[in-house]
Structure formats: C-alpha cells, structure tokens
UniProtKB/TrEMBL annotation:
Belongs to the RNase HII family. This is Ribonuclease HII. Its EC number is 3.1.26.4. Endonuclease that specifically degrades the RNA of RNA-DNA hybrids.
C-alpha cells in the first residue's frame, strides 16, 4: 500500500525520472502534487506496471492531481554535464513547470540538489512507497516513451519503439551496423567493444 503524504506539508511534490540508463534520447522527469485525499490501488512504480496500465494511470494522475510538470533533458546536455546532473536538472525543470510551488519535495533515489530552498528528502525506492513519486514515475515514463516512439519513425532500424533507447542486444547490434544518430548519448559506452578501440 503506497502512502499519500509523509509529512504535514499540504503541498508535497513527488519527483522521479525515466531513461537514465538509456543509450539514446532524453532523460525525462516529472513532478506531481496530489491532493491529500488521493487514493489509487493500481498506482505503483512505473516499472511494475504494464504499458496499458501506465497509460490508464497517466490520465488519472493528470486529471486528479493538483498540478504536474514534465521536462526532458536531451542527449547533448547529458553529454556535457553527465547523466546524474542531467537527471537532477530534469527534476528541477519539472518542478519549475508546476502551477503551484510545493512546500516540500520527495525524490526517488538518493541524489538531489536543493531547489529554491524548498526542503526535500531523497527516498530510495520511493516510487514503491509514496503515491506522488509513483505518479511522477508514471508520467516520466509515459512522456519519455511517447518521445521515443516519435523519433523511432526517423530511425526505425534501432527499434526505439520497442526498446525505448535502452541497451538491448538489438539496439547495440543496430549501433554496430548503422553507427550512431544525433539522438545517441556520446558520453555513454554505446558498445562493449569501445573498450578495445583506440578512441
């Protein structure tokens, strides 16, 4: 059973990101403030849900939340500031787009940087403990998947529609065969053989 708020703050925002481990595309974060009385038995960490359930929950979260925000940080920025900083930046940007400023922020994971002096807490596996983080994880994942489906049409040989940019065997084989695209993260080890190449 996921908990709604974990403090007495009325406007508690949960934030999470998707796409950290991908070889291509953005890292996407979402921030969500849910009403105190929000309940949903289906809502869980987005990784535990089917695509169909995620899409169903996306519309539930968007219609029932107080406010939500989603932000992408793209591969060029990931390459210039590294994936951890890019993930935190995406979370900050998603919080920035909220229509109401939160009084407290709960973050999935163990790394975050202060945002506008708002008190925050990092929670390992928070997306399986708190509804607002689970809601943010669903939005981050569905918005990122939509983006990957869109760029899949441009480069169908990498099958991003299916692998969403993650390092699957098929994705790596396509990189080996066709090289990289403007959407690939050049700072990532795109192929295991890169270790042996004199780059």
């Amino acid at each position: 059973m996921l908990l709604n708020n974990h403090t007495d703050f009325l406007l508690e925002c949960g934030t999470d990101e998707a796409g950290r481990g991908c070889l291509a595309g953005p890292v996407t974060a979402a921030a969500v403030i849910l009403p105190k009385d929000f309940k949903n038995t289906l809502l869980n960490d987005s990784k535990q849900l089917t695509e169909k359930k995620r899409h169903l929950l996306k519309s539930v979260v968007e219609s029932d939340c107080i406010t939500f925000g989603v932000a992408h940080v793209f591969q060029e920025k990931i390459d210039s500031i590294n994936i951890l900083n890019a993930s935190i930046l995406a979370m900050h940007k998603s919080i920035e787009t909220l229509q109401i400023q939160p009084e407290y922020i709960i973050v999935d994971g163990n790394k975050f940087k202060p945002y506008k002096k708002i008190p925050f807490q990092t929670i390992i596996k928070g997306d399986g403990k708190y509804l607002s983080i689970a809601a943010a994880s669903v939005l981050a994942k569905t918005y990122r998947d939509e983006y990957m489906n869109k760029i899949h049409k441009e480069f169908p040989m990498y099958n991003w529609k299916k692998n969403k940019g993650y390092p699957t065997k098929e994705h790596r084989e396509a990189i080996k065969k066709f090289g990289i695209t403007k959407y690939h993260r050049k700072s990532f080890k795109l192929l295991p053989e890169q270790l042996k190449l004199d780059l």
